TrEMBL record:
This is Acyl-CoA dehydrogenase. Signal peptide: none annotated. The keyword Repeat does not apply. Residues 111-206 form the Acyl-CoA oxidase/dehydrogenase middle domain. It comes from Saccharopolyspora rhizosphaerae.
Amino acid sequence: MLDFLRKYSREQLDSRRMDERRGFPVSLIPDLAHAGLLGLQVPKRYQGRELSHSDTAKVMRQAGAIDCNLLIYLAVHNTLGVPPVLQFAREDVRSAVLPELAQGRRLVTSAISEPSMGSHVRSITSTATKQPDGSYVLNGGKQWISLGADAHYVNVFARLTDENGQEAGITGFLVDTSSPGFVRGPEVITLGLKAVPQNSLAMENVHVPAEGLLGEEGKGLAAAKTAFTRGRLVLATGALGAAMRALELAQRFARRREVATGNLAENGRVQQIVAESVAAVQAVETLIEHITDRLDSGRDVPEPFYFAVKILGCELMWEVIDRCVQLLGARGFVDTNVVGQFYRDYRLFRIFEGTTEAITVYLGSMVLKQPQHFLSIFDDFDVDPKLAEHIARIDKLTTTTTTSAQQQHVLAAQIGELVCWSLLAVLAADSRNRSSMYAHTASWTEQQLLDKLRTAEDSRPFVELPTVDELARHIGDFDTSLGNVEQRRPGIQHDLDLLLRRG
Ligand SMILES: Cc1cc2nc3c(=O)[nH]c(=O)nc-3n(C[C@H](O)[C@H](O)[C@H](O)COP(=O)(O)OP(=O)(O)OC[C@H]3O[C@@H](n4cnc5c(N)ncnc54)[C@H](O)[C@@H]3O)c2cc1C
């Protein structure tokens, strides 16, 4: 598969054209399907490739290094779409649907986000009403759904009302998009990732048979979580591939470029930037390896690992890409030099699948509610004594008293971030003896943890923030300087003329 992707990249893909035309070459889906890339972890009995988690990560890293659109196509189908079906659909449904998905005859995606909610999954408003015959009727709207207009199946998450009219909780359904009442809405024009369409979806009395239920009624969050957890790992892995490729390009340039101090690569500041970037890449790679090894050996992966890989993987790898744009100077801003397109495309990863802020605050809040769970994350590790001291200081911070909800959010964000960094630092320290580069990565990671810990400790007492009204008043005043510049020039008419439409 890796050979296929490399050859395909050299001979068939044109990322610039996909970006400009907002689409893929028509041969893409059959070619990916033929290479087995649409059934990566589907068991062989359902005609998939049954790859291990570490092999899947290699495929995703490779795809991420080639093109973000390619990665997301694979990630949406294989990790957002397939796992809820594989783990929560009835066996007869699995036997019917999974071979179609694994062979690429149909695509699948998951629809969680709605206009009124994105990060806050529990506030889903789409509804499902159970019918006397055991089937369900779905209503509501979903937004930003990758492959929403292309997928034949969508895992839809909705709020169920049971046969007695009682609220029964969020429930997952496998919906056939050819069902009457399922309406695909327009594609949004995005900043990057332009070849993967995102559509809004509307459900107007969509009938879903009883066998369309994913898991148990009211337990839909468990099915949604399989998509999220896998998705978070894959986003970090794809971003890792992109950061590695960006560094490769920046390194080639730096070795060939002469600046006022001599060779660019030999300038100390540049060497420092490259070394920090390599350390970030190596630390994230170590975390991904750790998670996939645990999964492959059937060991439990505590939830904070998935948060850490999503938060730090996506944040740090995008930062590396940004640094490579900078290192390349004007060449970084030229869209045909790969790194610039990565910069636009991978920016999404800090938003998608739960924004960094939302999940950092969530992770921190979980730890603040049950601080004893924080220390238990490290039970499996022989933690270096210096790191153990830092971890004890983080533990102490969890006892901070706050006097407002806002302070509590700030505290949760700090704790969430520190949990992520402490995990990264413990894993990096564990790998310290592998090579001198790993030793550098361990020191860099520990330094990052320490910097963040000191910042959190020094921020006591919390700085009084301006009130929301003060901020709104101040920003409202910008209007006096800027005036109204909203563009209202009519857009392009796309619809078929009324007189030409069917009656
Ligand atoms: C290109 C693209 C593809 C997508 N594909 C899919 C898909 O296939 N399926 C799907 O279901 N969804 C998809 N999404 C939706 C995506 O997952 C959500 O947009 C994302 O989770 C953020 O939700 P939101 O846009 O509603 O932002 P909001 O949740 O409204 O966030 C707005 C701001 O508030 C901050 N914020 C939110 N909560 C908190 C908190 N608790 N603490 C502090 N700050 C907070 C956020 O960081 C952000 O800055 C896609 C989005 C995009 C852009």
